[in-house]
Amino acid sequence: RESILEFLLSSHPLDCPICDKGGECPLQNLTMAHGKGTSRMDVSLKLKLDKHVPLGEMIYLDRERCIQCARCIRFQDEVVDDPVIHFHERGRHTEIVTFSEPGFDSYWSGNTTDICPVGALTTADFRFGARPWELVPVATLSPHGPAGSNMVFSTRREAKSGGRSVIKRIMPRQNELVNEIWISDRDRFVHHFADAKDRLTKPLMRKDGKLVETSWSEALDLVAGKLQQQGTAVAGLGGDRLSNEDLFVFQKLMRKVGSANIDLANRRMAGGDVVAKVGISSGSNLRELGAGDAILVVASDLHEEEPVWWLRVKQAAQRGATLVVLNLRPTRLDKYAKYAVHYAPGQALATVRQLVNAAKVETNGSDNPIESAADALVQANNLVAFYGAEGMTYAET
Predict the structure, then answer these.
(1) Percent of the chain beyond pLDDT 70?
(2) pTM of full prediction above 0.85
(3) Angle, in degrees to the nearest 10, between helices 348-358 and 369-379
(4) Cα–Cα distance for residue pair 298/12, rounded to 1 Å
(5) Contact present, 271 and 186 (Cβ < 8 Å)
(6) Where do the domains of the chain lie, and which CATH numbers do they carry?
(7) Regions of the chain with pLDDT less than 70
């Protein structure tokens, strides 16, 4: 161990005081536990490499820190099937490069910074932003997708934000039943709106045709008065990002003021926030699905709508689950599907009806992909079905 650490450190920079990984660095910890106290290497012989290489829009590489462990490369290749980074050159000139255009074009790139053991890979939004021991972890769930990926907000109080706690970075929180230890870049990087300078922090009231700041008590009194006067004529429209508990309280408020005009956002406006997951029979835990089970994905590109579900469905198919994909266009799940059916525009509902009708009769050995898929679904011990946001926008739905 001592010799291996000495070898790894032979050309490793002494960046610990400024490195983002300092304080949570495996190499730093192992060196403290097993490494030599002094180095036999001539410092003047250390390689000098680029320290600020943008692999992608959000990921930076410090080539001096990289120990060529290949964790990031193997993750992109073996876990998420996105082999967009590779080793280039040989020996001491080995370096990580991206072969995609744009650079590091992956929905999972941020995870490579988590598994990098030396701080060679860092995120653009956290680079030199804070020290790990200054951060307060806050457990939370992703508000951006239906899977509810488990995450941790790393927060810190900052004077430039008026003493408020701000989100410095988002890290995955391990939950083997949901997202394992991975989160998509959408969940990791889409949080800066929380501290946007143009975000409203005080209520605005229209006076003499202009919006002016007012107190919360005055604003609430105004709204309460309007609701009392025109309760039955008030309509309530709930957002598609609200939880069931929030929606329950919202409808309770509307009933209290005497209004029956309650609705959710129009399904044609729902976008990727409406993805229906239906488990039929018991054991619809995606982690447990494998041989003998079946997964049906209709009108959904899961990689776009909910990357975490795409990953779990892919893994289930690799474990032997029968994957059936019905979609207007090819998707990244087709590679793992036993049956991938591409219907014509406007034929989503008709294709589903064909599948249902085919499931009512035995058609063993049929060359028709719909009939073969129906047989596989009927014979499965357990079935999980996904109906996508795109399908929600179809008039026939």
Answers:
(1) 91
(2) no
(3) 60
(4) 50
(5) no
(6) 2-123 (3.30.70.20), 132-195 (no CATH), 220-265 (no CATH), 272-392 (3.40.228.10)
(7) 240-241, 265-284, 360-366, 394-397
